[in-house]
Structure formats: C-alpha cells, structure tokens
Amino acid sequence: MPRDPDAVTVLVDGTEFEAWNEIAITTAIDQYSTIAMAAPFEADRIDFRETFRPFSFRDFDVLIGGEKEVTGTLLDAIPQVGPESSSVQVTAYAKPGLLHDVSMPSSALPLEWKKVGLRVITAAILSPFGLDGPVFEQGAVEGTRFDKPSMEPDGKPQDFLVGLAKQRGLVINDTRDGALRYWKSVGTESPVVHFEAGKEPLVKIDAAFNARAFFSELTGFAKGSSGKPSGGKYRVPNPLATGGLRPHSFQLDDTDAADVPAAVRAKAGRMLGECASYTVSDLPTWRDPSGALWRPNTTIKITAPNAMIYQPYEFLIRQVTLGCTHEKKWAELNVVLPGAYSGEFPDSLPGSQ
Predict the structure, then answer these.
(1) Spelled out in words, what is the top-level CATH class assigned to the domain 194-352?
(2) Regarding the domain with residue range 102-183, which homologous superfamily does it belong to in the CATH classification?
(3) Which of 158, 178, 174, 177 is nearest to 166 (CA)?
C-alpha cells in the first residue's frame, strides 16, 4: 500500500516509538522546532521506563510521510496520574535548541574575536556541543566582519548569535537535519493559498495588535570597540505611521558604520512583526493546495473583513503547528506583516485598505 504522506513516525534514539496518542510539531521562521507528545504511561515496561528516564536527553526525531521533519533532543517526560488512566507528556526541541539553555563550557573561554565573520563565530560556538552548521540559505550572506565581538562567560550562546544575526538582517532556525540555519525571509507575490472568510478551509482567525510597539521612525547608532558612539547612524521613517511622532532610538554593538543601515532596517522589520499578527487555526489539512506541507517563510493571502482584513492581503507565515491524534489532524498558522524580517515596509496595513 502507498505510504500515507502525513503519517507521523517518532524515533527515540533511532528506535520507533508507536504508542503515542497525540503530537504537535511546531516550526517557525525565527525559532527552533519543538515537539509536544502525549502517550499512555506504561510503568510495567522496562523499555518504556528507560526510554523516558528523566534528564536522559535522548535523540528524538520526527518524520512525516517517511521524511525527516525535526532532528531533535528529548527534554521532559512528565507523568500525569488520574483515577482511571496515566499518561506521559513529552517535549523535545531541535538540536540547536540547546543553545537557549546553556552557557559556553569554561574550556572554550574566553570567546573574543577581532575582525571575523558570522560563520567563524558561529562555528566556534557550535563546535563544543557537536552541533552542525551554520547553514546559510534563502539569500543569506554573513556580511562584513564584526569589529571586536565578545561573549560574556555567563551569556547564552543563542542570545549572542541572535544579536549578531539581527545586525545582518538574518534570522535563525534549524534545518530538518538539525543544523543551525541563517536565512532571510521571502518576498511577496508568491502566496501558496488565498484564504477567504466564509469559505473552507478557513475556519477561525484571531488578530493580535500591539500599538505600543509601533513607531513613526527608528534611528540606530553604531558603537565602536571603545564603547562610545562611532559616528555612524541611520534613520528609517515609517511610511505607515499616521498617529504623530513616536520615535525609537537604539545603539548597535560591534557594528561598523557601513553596516548600520542594514541593522536599522532589520530592527524596523522586527517592529512590524511585533505590532500585528494573525493566527489561522483549526485548519483541517496539513498541506497547501499544491500538496506541500505548510511551512514558515512562505506567504498566504487572506480576506477576512470581520478580522479587519477588508481586501486580499498577503502575509508572511511566521510559525506553523501541525497536530494530530490517531483520529484527526489539524494545522495552525501564525502570520505577520510582510517585511517583518526584511525591514521592507508593505504598501499598507491590513485594516487601512
């Protein structure tokens, strides 16, 4: 029989684990993939007890239709005991998710560089943990060398790398093989679907706005290796702002004057991502009309007047969650304004059309 293209396979240390009841797989343009799974608790089985032994950090991979979707690490396996049944709630994240949790080993310190690029810095941080990468995709380039970056001994590697990536207009996530990836967001004009209110498969859409994160202009100031302003600055006006003066200024560490414009445009993009988003939930399918799985860093059009999307508007998919039980499946898409990760302002806001 042909393989079900949406069949989910869970591997723990390379061995298939079949006794799960529910699973949700979340991927995002700027976050590492995560997995949440529920399974019956089988305390009498020695292999079950060993598989979900606390703090074992086992390999935890998920395949969809036989193709690797997440290469990850098992985190928590938390038992839940009830009067009639017991279960275990399992969480995992992609391999580079480790960088969120830890500091660098003392043997790798001090982490100080001078006039080196993002690839060299990233490789030095990944190496002690045996992590793969960096991979540069979707038009991502490492840009010019940083002046004199350094990482504090108690700092989180992920926070440090994100700070550097933002200065180059890049975002970080994981490849399906578990490598750390730098990439850029896609442009518009190639939406994978047009959802319309009142027509399937659009069932539910919720809006989230944050007016306090919306500024009329953004100005970035470069700070040299001495810690003082280097003289480089750049201002980006917000062509969508109509509510009066709302300026936002900030300093950019380890950024040459020539790199300031790109860094400020990237900051403007993140403003777009923070000020407005929509969540399309309860989709009955994991796939777009072409048959491809829903993916972050693709675009969709939405028309939903009751959600203040009065005319067709093209959004960037920021995050995708694919969930299923053995009886049904569902998908959820979180979308943001185009330009949220490129710093290129759209022609309009959804509610202004």
Answers:
(1) alpha beta
(2) Baseplate protein-like domains (3.55.50.10)
(3) 158
Of the CATH numbers 3.10.310.40, 3.40.50.300, 2.30.300.10, 3.10.20.310, which one belongs to the domain with range 8-95? Answer: 2.30.300.10
For the whole model, what pTM was predicted?
0.91
Question: How is the chain split into domains, by residue range?
Answer: 8-95, 102-183, 194-352
Sequential pLDDT tens for the chain (353 residues): 457 899 999 999 999 999 999 999 999 999 999 999 999 998 888 888 989 999 999 999 999 999 999 999 999 999 988 777 789 999 999 999 999 999 999 999 899 999 999 999 999 999 999 999 999 998 899 988 888 889 999 999 999 999 899 888 899 999 999 999 999 999 888 999 999 999 999 989 999 999 999 999 999 988 765 555 556 789 999 999 998 999 999 887 665 556 788 888 888 998 999 999 999 999 999 999 999 999 999 999 999 999 999 999 999 999 999 999 988 999 999 999 999 998 899 999 997 76
Nearest to 313 by CA among 325, 297, 300: 300
CA atoms within 13 A on the CB side of 116: 14
Torsion of CA 248, 251, 255, 261, to 10 degrees: 20
